[in-house]
């Protein structure tokens, strides 16, 4: 029996929550149709429910398994999110001839419910190419789609016979819906057990209004450490390079249960739907997804959030991310960043963590806040409340918290980040002392600590890989930065991600750590021409794409940037942007144009004060061109020489209409991008306008 209200003249139905299974009105209509021999037109229901987030009735389309109306069994649910400009009907781009029949065929032959959610935001649907769903624009946030998703999930669980628990909740989606699937499953890992994405959008904005943060799934793979994840890419998809970057991030995250598929297809579309839904069926059969993780990581762009029973509340000022790391019954790490993955700490006056109810009610616990990021270790006492929760008050600096008391165990020593500014970026071709610091989480000293460094990468030569410390103070760190010596080999082009392993042995046992560094390219050329803007106005020749099928030309762009005396020198206390002339960008027509640089430095004299985020002209990806406003410390020595890595991104539409993908020629030009890396050193005497030398 087909299942829709359309042949009865009803455009939609209202689901009721008062009865078991499908709403009483819907069931009555179906039974009447069956008794009368009336055939319905489509195998789905178009229904609505009330939403407090949107302040209105929201639509969704639900596909039910065969025999749902006459059975009593319960089913898992896949929530499917549509792409740009589409709606819950999934009919915008194919007139309902491809995706809907494939979803219907799957539910007809499998015991699963599929719910197609509506991402419609009236303010953002201004035309075919203006229909941005899910409120993920930079100036948005008035409609928190994450909170709306919770409304929809609760409504579906209350109105239909669903199976309870995160194992039986899955998300999937195409394009912007693929991004939404990855984002929501990372935001609610305690509710969603598996996530898939077809050609997902690479990055969009999330968070409260006025403090939106750019969210890239590739920066937050560890939030999926207890989630099964699948990515699907069409070979002819126009944003394939972004998909490859997302795939590479997940594929190199050992904690994520990840799989990937590429289909030969000529455009941006949801391919291999049935195979991907079979992936979710495997997840529904996986009992591992039932158990809460013993240790987990999490990132949030919200000031306040709940996850795995933990409640975090803060007054973070402006855009910022809160990161919980290695959370277990024995403690956790906490960091904030103004932006991911390498921003400085966010600004706030208070931040509190209320734990899950996993401690002995009324018992006393010692809270050890280890000395990290230049802080001094401290210890306080607290008491579990009647529910067994602990309340821990912190600030937005980096913290490593150990909890000592009933039912806890000493945390093993851990490796601290090699750099508080994102990945460590060593130079190749010469020996490098790795800044290895091992933290002792105990309230008593750690003894007989030994570290041993290894790597399976052929580009890593370990010159000195072992070191020992007899004692590490309680809550203290062992500094091995002068002990472990490595030489890296690199090729030309971009940074090379390189993995190393660190084995720890100590008086209480053993532990293993893995970490990545981003090796600088070899060679790292000097810029052809450089301009420093320290409060000065300048007009540059920049590249402008003239169409989305290739081609472009130079245009003039006038900017006033930085804060200083405007003499074209970055002097102590000043803030500045750095512009470079690139002889040849990625696009064939991009010649001798200028671009603002992203600046990397481990020097304490240089800080990145702002992550400047700008649209990449005609790209329809949400991806941002990210560059830096840097500040030179007012206490910088006149004799200092500060090495900088300058990163300018260029992009191009690459159109080859004669090349087939699958059986069809390329439908839309690829949107490629390239990072041009240069080395340059700041000195007090050589930071003048158009300085060409180090």
What share of residues is helical? Answer: 10-25%
Number of helices: 6
Unreliable parts: 1-25, 27-41, 687-694
- Largest sheet, order of strands side by side? 1-2-3-5-4-6-7-10-11
Structural class by helix and strand composition: mainly beta
How would you describe this structure to a colleague?
It is a single chain. This protein is mainly β. Helix content is 11%, strand content 38%. It has six helices and 43 strands. The strands form eleven sheets. The protein has a nine-stranded mixed beta sheet with strand order 1-2-3-5-4-6-7-10-11, with helices on both faces. It has a six-stranded antiparallel beta sheet with strand order 12-15-16-21-18-19, with no helix packed on it. Strands 32, 35, 36, 38 and 39 form a five-stranded antiparallel beta sheet that branches. β18 (364-369) and β19 (378-383) form a beta hairpin. The protein is globular and about 80 Å long. It starts with 12 loop residues before the first strand and ends in an 11-residue tail after the last strand. 42% of the residues are buried.
């Amino acid at each position: 029996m087909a299942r829709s209200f359309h042949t009865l003249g009803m455009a939609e139905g209202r689901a009721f929550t008062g009865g078991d299974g499908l709403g009483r009105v819907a069931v009555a209509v179906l039974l009447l149709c069956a008794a009368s021999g009336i055939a319905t037109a489509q195998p789905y229901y178009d229904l609505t429910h009330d939403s407090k987030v949107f302040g209105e009735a929201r639509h969704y389309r639900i596909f039910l398994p065969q025999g749902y109306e006459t059975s009593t069994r319960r089913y898992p649910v896949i929530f499917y999110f549509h792409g740009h400009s589409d709606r819950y009907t999934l009919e915008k781009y194919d007139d309902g001839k491809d995706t809907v029949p494939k979803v219907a065929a799957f539910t007809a032959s499998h015991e699963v419910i599929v719910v197609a959610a509506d991402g419609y935001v009236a303010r953002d649907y201004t035309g075919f190419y203006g229909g941005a769903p899910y409120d993920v624009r930079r100036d948005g946030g008035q409609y928190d789609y994450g909170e709306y998703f919770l409304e929809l999930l609760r409504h579906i669980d209350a109105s239909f016979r669903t199976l309870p628990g995160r194992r039986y909740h899955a998300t999937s989606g195409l394009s912007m819906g693929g991004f939404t699937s990855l984002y929501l499953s990372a935001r609610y890992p305690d509710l969603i057990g598996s996530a898939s994405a077809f050609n997902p959008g690479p990055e969009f904005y999330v968070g409260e209004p006025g403090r939106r943060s750019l969210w890239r799934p590739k920066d937050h793979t560890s939030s999926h450490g207890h989630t099964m994840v699948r990515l699907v890419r069409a070979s002819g998809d126009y944003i394939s390079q972004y998909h490859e970057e997302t795939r590479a991030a997940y594929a190199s995250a050992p904690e994520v249960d990840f799989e990937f598929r590429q289909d030969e297809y000529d455009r941006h579309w949801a391919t291999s739907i049935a195979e991907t839904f079979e992936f979710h069926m495997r997840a529904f059969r996986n009992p591992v997804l039932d158990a809460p993780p013993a240790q987990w990581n999490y990132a949030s762009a919200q000031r306040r959030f709940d996850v795995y029973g933990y409640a975090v509340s803060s007054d973070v000022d402006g855009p910022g991310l809160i990161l919980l790391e290695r959370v277990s019954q024995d403690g956790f790490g906490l960091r904030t960043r103004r932006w991911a993955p390498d921003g400085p700490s966010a600004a706030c006056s208070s931040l509190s963590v209320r734990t899950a109810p996993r401690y002995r009610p009324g018992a006393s616990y010692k809270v050890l806040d280890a000395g990290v990021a230049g802080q001094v270790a401290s210890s306080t006492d607290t008491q579990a409340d009647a529910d067994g929760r602990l309340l821990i008050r912190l600030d937005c600096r980096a913290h490593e918290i150990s909890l000592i008391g009933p039912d806890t165990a000493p945390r093993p020593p851990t490796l601290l980040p090699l750099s508080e500014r994102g990945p460590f970026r060593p130079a190749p071709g010469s020996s490098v002392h790795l800044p290895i610091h091992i933290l002792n989480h105990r309230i008593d000293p750690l003894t007989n600590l030994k570290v041993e460094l290894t790597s399976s990468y052929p580009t890593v030569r370990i010159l000195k890989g072992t070191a020992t410390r007899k004692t590490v103070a309680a809550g203290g760190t062992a500094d091995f930065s002068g002990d472990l010596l490595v030489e890296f080999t690199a090729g030309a082009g971009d940074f090379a991600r390189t993995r190393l392993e660190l084995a720890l042995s100590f008086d209480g046992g053993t532990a293993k750590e893995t970490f990545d560094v981003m090796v600088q390219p070899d060679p790292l050329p000097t810029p052809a021409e450089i301009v420093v803007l320290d409060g000065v106005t300048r007009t540059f020749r920049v590249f402008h794409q003239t169409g989305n099928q290739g081609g472009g030309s130079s245009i003039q762009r006038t900017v006033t940037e930085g804060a200083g005396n405007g003499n074209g020198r970055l002097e102590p206390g000043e803030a500045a942007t750095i512009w470079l002339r690139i002889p040849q960008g990625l696009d064939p027509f991009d010649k001798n144009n200028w671009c603002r640089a992203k600046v990397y430095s481990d020097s304490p004299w240089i800080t990145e004060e702002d992550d400047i985020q700008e649209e990449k002209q005609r790209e329809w990806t949400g991806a941002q061109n990210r560059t830096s406003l840097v500040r030179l410390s007012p206490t910088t020595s006149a004799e200092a020489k500060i090495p900088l890595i300058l990163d300018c991104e260029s992009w191009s539409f690459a159109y080859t209409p004669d090349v087939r993908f699958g059986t069809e020629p390329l439908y839309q030009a690829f949107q490629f991008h390239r990072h041009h890396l240069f080395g340059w050193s700041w000195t007090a005497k050589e930071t003048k306008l158009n300085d060409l030398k180090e």
